[in-house]
Amino acid sequence: MEDMNVEEGDKSMVRDFAVKASEYTDTVTKAENDTVILVCVVESNPKAEIIITKGDEILEVEENGSNLTHTIASLSCLDTGLYSCTSANRYNRDQPSKDILEIASQYRGNN
Asked: Can you give the residue range of the structural domain that contains 25?
């Protein structure tokens, strides 16, 4: 069984990539115009470079950290798609840890 504790000088690992205040699932559906906060939590020693992307577009970068957030202020259909969080330190630069999350928007009609 693999030891889940990060020992001194161990590779970086994405532990959690989710939408804040949502149940942890691979796909999250939110209403249009909602604020969506993506949170990526990493275990790493030494600290990691963490990157949140949507497709090939880099949205946020933390050069030396253990967590990273990205806020979508007003969700629209253009924000739907696959987001990823990638982390690496000097021990796993050639094989970074990655987690993927899909964001979907639901039209909120005027009632």
From this structure: 10-106
Give Cβ neighbours of residue 90 (< 8 Å, ≥ 6 apart): 46
3-state percent helix, strand, coil for the chain, nearest multiple of 5: 5, 60, 40
Burial class (CB in 10 A: 0-12, 13-18, 19+), 72: buried
CATH of the domain at 79: 2.60.40.10
Q: What would the mean pLDDT of 82-91 be, rounded to a whole number?
A: 97
Q: Are β-strands 67-72 and 36-45 bridged in parallel, bridged antiparallel, or unpaired?
A: antiparallel
4 lies in a domain?
no
pLDDT > 90 fraction of the chain, expressed in percent and rounded: 81
Query: Bridge-partner residues for 101, per DSSP?
Result: 83
In a domain, 111, yes or no: no
Question: How many structural domains is the chain composed of?
Answer: 1
Residue 21 lies in a domain: yes
For the segment 26-78, what is each residue's pLDDT rounded down to a tens digit? 899 999 999 999 999 999 999 999 999 999 999 999 999 999 999 999 999 99
